[in-house]
Amino acid sequence: MSTPQHHIHLSESEMPTTWYNVIADLPAPPPPPLHPGTMEPVGPDDLAPLFPMALIEQEVSTQRYIDIPGEVLDVYRLWRPSPLFRATRLEQALGTPARIYYKYEGVSPAGSHKPNTSVPQAYYNHAEGVTRLTTETGAGQWGSALAFATAQYGMECEIWMVAASYRQKPYRRTMMQVWGATVHSSPSNATEYGRALLADHVDHPGSLGIAISEAVAACVADPNARYALGSVLNHVLLHQTIIGEEALLQLAKVGDVPDVIVGCTGGGSNFGGLAFPFLREKLAGKMNPTIRCVEPAACPTLTKGEYRYDFGDTAGMTPLMKMHTLGHDFIPEPIHAGGLRYHGMSPLVSHIYELGLAEAIAIPQRECFAGALTFARTEGIVPAPEPTHAIAATIREALACKETGEEKVILTALCGHGHLDLASYEKYLAGDMVDYDLPDEVIAKAMANVPVIA
Ligand SMILES: *Cc1c(COP(=O)(O)O)cnc(C)c1O
Question: Which of 25, 118, 211, 328 is the most exposed place for a label (fewest CB within 10 A)?
Fold first, then answer.
């Protein structure tokens, strides 16, 4: 028996030149975001203080394919096409008949999939004369991705980093500063909302929702600034579809078709980026993969949250979005997968889940880190804490195949490396990591503050 190909390479000239907009192929469009004052769908004018027109157009577009600008392709070529790997050593270690493939996004300068959207976001802002971008970051991956992208276009970048991560991940902060960004611990003294929270609680751990409120407040106070979001929105998921488009071409090279696609979901962007091009093929009847979201048991937005209109941030400054939510003032336990600690889920992923086109499971963090060790010791790459959820789900599926003897093809996204998350591994190895259960009373309490829409 010959050894199967491990690294499935795509050449630069084979790199896709369009993003895929899944909305064009869905049986129904996702419900629109609403203005919290009027409860009417938000229009371009409502969003103009926050985003450049090109991104607002992409946000509401129903066009199936959108051309990737040449200037964005030029920056993408620094690390794209990204590799697809067949996890042969992991398969052997598990003794599974399944064939496991992972698309690796840790090869980007920031070490995750996030530059796939930070680069076009910086590009479109720059093209419309914006000189400064504000944003929030949880674990620091989005902040570093935006700091890298703004450096490419000579723009200023100001970042509110969730306080718990700011303390736990000093090297992420330094990385952002190396690329020239200004970084605040959030809640911060730089905004009125931050000052109010700090007055009540000097050691406030912060949350993504709070950091978004601060970054939005700083943006609207400066006419030359716009705001950038690293996940959740339609245009972000659109930009990430380069992942799935490449993976489709790579799998075709080895003649495999996925039976199961799993991805970790924080705001839904790496998952959507991988899964949507395959969903297109599924909706066209060309393949029939099961598509599965994996979330942390401590922040189970899809599996335990409600599908309702809610704010994207804690202070209630954003439009209302119809999404799976645990309540905009829900503050998740400080699990190590900081990028998965968000109270909501992308409206597009929520919608697809409601349509029955994707399923979801929640996994506690110790099982995820156990899977990550097996993965690192076989495949070599140390995963970021977020995709350890996708790896744990992949291992569950592969072990189920071992029971049944099914030779399923499993595809997952290894959306970032964990080189700046070794403190989490240190905790796991020392036996100090704990799992958090999320009691229903805690969810009910946070849901009580979600607006009731008539
Ligand atoms: C930000 C991030 C996530 C979570 O965001 P999604 O939009 O759900 O992809 C997951 N993994 C990594 C490595 C991240 O940087």
Answer: 25
